[in-house]
Write a structure and sequence with these properties.
- By secondary structure, the chain is α+β, with helices and mostly antiparallel strands.
- The chain folds into 2 domains: about 130 residues, no CATH class; about 100 residues, Endonuclease, Chain A.
- The chain contains 13 helices and 12 strands.
- The longest helix is centred in the C-terminal third of the chain and has 16 residues.
- It is elongated.
- This is DUF559 domain-containing protein.
- InterPro entries: Restrct_endonuc-II-like.
- It comes from Mycobacterium riyadhense.
């Protein structure tokens, strides 16, 4: 049985007995069922919310981003719909927005806002850090351009949060592979360093790809690499990293490695290391 599904439709089609539906499935929203005990992804929750609307509404915001392929969207967060009903059930957020026909597309049979419209809504409704993290993920998954979002914003001059959105858009970089990479990049920019380029290929003298660094400055051959937990606790990954960074150093690059503790609690130390590496390479503020 494909899920999520509307219970009334499943029973009318005799797709399964009511007893089986009640025992094997649970209502995630009124009338919408999923397997009991399942942990929904953001895309599955968005699909379920759309079914709750009887397929009338448009999936928007972070839910749209999830259906468009963006990673790092929490499945436990409320689904977002553009809907006229101002009294949705728990875990559905509705927005009484005006959508242009060009701002809605079909994704697997579900009405979803375009990537540009999703970016427009996310960027004006969340904090600066969250907005950049989520728009980085959306840009990473789609071909959306921030210029397209600016054009769309001009078509909705009275919308709330447009000023906040326009401040966020220049910071977006689809090269970020994780929210922590985005956070690291923003911290560097806020500290006064030039905006780093993301996903820089490092080649040896023969042109062989040695590594791809998360972010950095090619002019000064300084890179910054955010290492997730697997880089510290997986012995095989640790061994690969040791060899890889030795080869990178032989190519004349200096790499500053960042972990969660350094990023969250000791940013001053991180910035000192970056400043020292860039200054040694000839950078001047």
């Amino acid at each position: 049985m494909d899920w999520p599904f509307l219970g009334s439709e499943a029973l009318a089609a005799k797709a399964l007995p009511e007893r089986a539906m009640r025992s094997l499935y649970e209502a995630v929203y009124p009338g919408v069922y999923v397997p009991s005990g399942i942990e929904l992804t953001a895309g599955q929750r968005a699909h379920a919310a759309w079914l709750w609307s009887r397929r009338r509404d448009v999936v928007a915001g972070n839910s749209a981003a999830a259906l468009l392929g963006a990673k790092w969207v929490n499945g436990w967060a409320p689904a977002e719909l553009v809907h006229v009903n101002r009294h949705p059930p728990p875990l559905i957020t509705v927005h009484a927005d005006t959508l242009l026909e060009s701002e809605v597309i079909d994704v697997g049979g579900i009405s979803v806002t375009t990537a540009a419209r999703a970016a427009f809504d996310i960027g004006r409704r969340t904090s600066r850090l969250q907005a950049v993290q989520r728009l980085d993920a959306l840009a990473n998954a789609t071909d959306v351009k921030m210029l397209d979002v600016e054009v769309l914003a001009a078509q909705h001059p009275g919308a709330r949060g447009v000023r906040r959105l326009l401040e966020v858009l220049p910071l977006v970089d689809g090269g970020a592979d994780s929210p922590q990479e985005t956070r690291t990049r923003l911290a560097l920019v806020d500290a006064g360093f030039p905006a780093p380029r993301t996903q820089i290929p490092i080649l040896d003298p023969s042109g062989y790809l040695v590594a791809r660094v998360d972010m950095g400055w090619e002019e000064w051959r300084v890179g910054v690499e955010y290492d997730g937990a697997q880089h510290w606790i997986d012995p095989r990954q640790r061994t690969r990293d040791i060899d890889r960074w030795a080869e990178v150093a032989e190519c004349g690059w200096t790499i500053i490695r960042v972990g969660s503790d350094l990023l969250r609690y000791r940013q001053g130390t991180l910035m000192q290391r970056v400043d020292a590496a860039l200054s040694a390479a000839g950078w001047r503020p």
